[in-house]
């Protein structure tokens, strides 16, 4: 691979990153890396341990931007 190929790949990656950012904004999705997702899942599990399933579902919906049924299924699976 020469410098031209490398530069072309860098440009393509930058273009794809811009498209992904656009889609996140357009779909109103907040990106979370693995550490953040684990922290939020821990918060949901803590709410479940406290017996506050309804609040856990609310938090899940806010974090993952999903509907009530999908959030309930996910929280049920965590439980």
**In terms of structural class, how would the helical and strand content be classed?**
mainly alpha
How many E strands? 0
Radius of gyration over alpha carbons?
A: 18 Å
* Main beta sheet strand tally, sense and closure: none
What pattern of helices and strands is seen along the backbone?
HHHH
* Overall outline: elongated
Tally of individual helices: 4
Q: Write down the overall mean pLDDT.
A: 86
Separation of termini?
50 Å
Assess the beta-strand content as a share of residues.
Answer: under 5%
Q: Which regions contain 5 or more consecutive residues with pLDDT less than 50?
A: none
Helix content: over 70%
Indicate the topology:
Blueprint: H1 3-26, H2 34-49, H3 53-64, H4 68-78
Helix pairs in contact: 2-3, 3-4
Descriptive notes:
The protein has 79 residues and is an all-alpha fold. The protein has 2 domains: 1-31; 32-79. The chain has helices at 3-26, 34-49, 53-64, 68-78. The N and C termini lie far apart (50 Å).
Highlighted features:
79 residues; mainly alpha; 2 domains; 4 helices; elongated
